[in-house]
Amino acid sequence: MQNSTLLAIVLGGVLCVLVVALGYYTALTWEVNVGKVTQVSARTRDILADTQGSIRITCFMDRRHPMFRPVSRLLRGLRQASRSVAGADIVIQYVDPRWDLARAGQLAAQKVPENALLLERQRRRLVVTLDEMIAQRSLLRTREELNARNHRELGVFRGESVCAAAIARLALPFERAIVYWIQGHGEVRFDDYDELHGFSDIARELNRGGFDLKPLTLPGLNRIPDDCHVLVIAGARYALNAEEIALLDGFLQNGGRLLYLAAPHVTTGIEDVLAKWGVKLLPLFAVGPQTLSGQEVVLSNFADHVITRELKNASLVFNNARCIQTLNETSAPTGADRPKVTLLASTDADGWGESHPHVFPRQFDPQTELPGPVAVAAVSERGGSVAKDVAFRPTRLCVIGETDFVMNGMLASRASANRDFFVNAMAWLAGIDMGSAPSLGGDATLVTGFTRREWVLFMVGAAGVIPLCVFLVFCLTSRRSRR
Fold first, then answer.
1. Fold classified for 173-430
2. Rama region for 431: left / alpha / beta (φ>0; ψ in -120 to 50; rest)
3. pLDDT (tens digit per residue) in 51-101
4. Rounded to whole angstroms, what are the CA distances from 101 to 5, 91, 123, 228?
5. pTM
């Protein structure tokens, strides 16, 4: 009996060694699902329904790659969703660079990198790389350090939101949206790489999303460039002159798109233009009991709008956000051509508009301050109800009461939806009505990969330590049985 038990333990150890060796040589990975894994989101289905025609997706990946399984699972979900809606027809092709040498050579000649997806619709094509589909959470600061130390890298797979954005871009009449960033009035710069106050992080996110950012100075211009899809004024600290105000006013009257990020304690002259579209900036700052350190305000009340629809389980963190109100009286005509104003994000009822935000402790003064809930972001649209087949470009503008909520320091240190909120606003202004949300489930997958050293340690634990523990338990039970 004892001999057979010992033989079973030895055979079990040998089997563990063989299984681990097989996994080592086949580059086996382990996927841990985050949250409840479901099919594609309702917003992705809406994008597929609005996109007509056939879309060919070529998966140019090594089948042994640890991310091949989640990517292929996502593609199958997109194809299944496309068949359930009367819209896009998804056609999938897999190309393994190790085996499909002819097709791999053609893709390489077209400058398609390995481990990427090629999306084609009619004569349009987009490439989505694997790095764009994974939000890295590396423990090291740079990729050079990661390669030098052979350290594993953690990440969250966000393939669905990235692929949905690519499909929405394929349906647009332009390949990349041109964003002109106004300069010359003390605005923040999108090419500022300062670790705390720069905007390079959010600029990099926009570039990945299909936006081309260009600087623009208004003096000397007769009109805003015709290729402008979105005009951005971020944190202007000095007033614009009358000619510049008239230029912006005409731009909006002709179907322009404007994103205005307000600076604190500054009057730029744009306030009169915003008032024509039903939006009023107040000299009050949003505060409330929901805060992190006592200075910020945490916002979790969102309107039912494409910008915030996917953020209802998330929160925004603002430092010095000016309050925003809607104006009932605007200079625009009444009826269907009247601007439609929506307050996007607001405090709860316990928040209020503070007139002295730097005075602590904060107390609400009903005589001079605004009771909650108070809004810090709003959008205005005119002509949005016009049918899609009418050649009409509706005017859209988005006003946010703060600029610093997407600076590099805020995005790096805050676990908030600030980044997604800003990207969603830009996408809506450009006409890409696609909402991005933090990866709280769905296709989100935490990916872990074992290095050679970790595989050796795992092998020792699986084939050595565990059988040894079983053997010790066996010895103890045998000794007790003898007694």
1. Rossmann fold (3.40.50)
2. left
3. 878 899 999 999 888 888 888 888 888 888 888 877 778 899 999 998 889
4. 52, 21, 24, 42
5. 0.67
